Amino acid sequence: MTYTAIIYAVVGHGIAEKMAADLRQKGSLGGTILVGRETRDSVFLRFLSIADAERDILLTLVTEEQLEPMLNAVRSYPIAHTRDAGIVFTIRTGGSNMTQETDHELISVIVNRGYADDIMEAARTAGARGGTILHARGTGKPDDEKFFGITIVPEKEQVLILAERDKAPAIREAIEQLPCLDTPGIGILYTMPVEHFAQLGPST
User: How far apart are CA 107 and CA 161, in angstroms?
Assistant: First the structure.
């Protein structure tokens, strides 16, 4: 079996597990759920200190034959028809060809913990509507710093920003020019083209 794409469904916290079970009933072999926080581009929400909301990201590997049925299952999932339900998009796996022109790209930034909010602020200034922040950790090496004989593995944050293609260059440049990222090795930035983007909720 050859997987050609990954379906990303970004939904409210607690929804992804139910959605994954529904997809398994429709033929999916399973998925991976990541939990992060979404930062919303709203001055009013930030003033009320509720601009961040916990979100689930469901990643589902699919074959070319499964792609459309699984996408339709996500788009028609009952809870998707609530306000601010989330988004769905796909990314092609290595070796597979893009099947359509893309209007969006996924900007991923992995940095030491504590820099994600600075990155999001710069991205918003350059036109990003928002993003999702995931907590992670680096992988240890023999020469990593030790504390009382215990290897310290730096905590990381991954920032995911889905950007319109025409705004993406300005967003990337704004992030790359942040003074806090001047130190070599502080983080990495990479992008991936996105297919089949759709907003979940009442507008679909």
Answer: 5
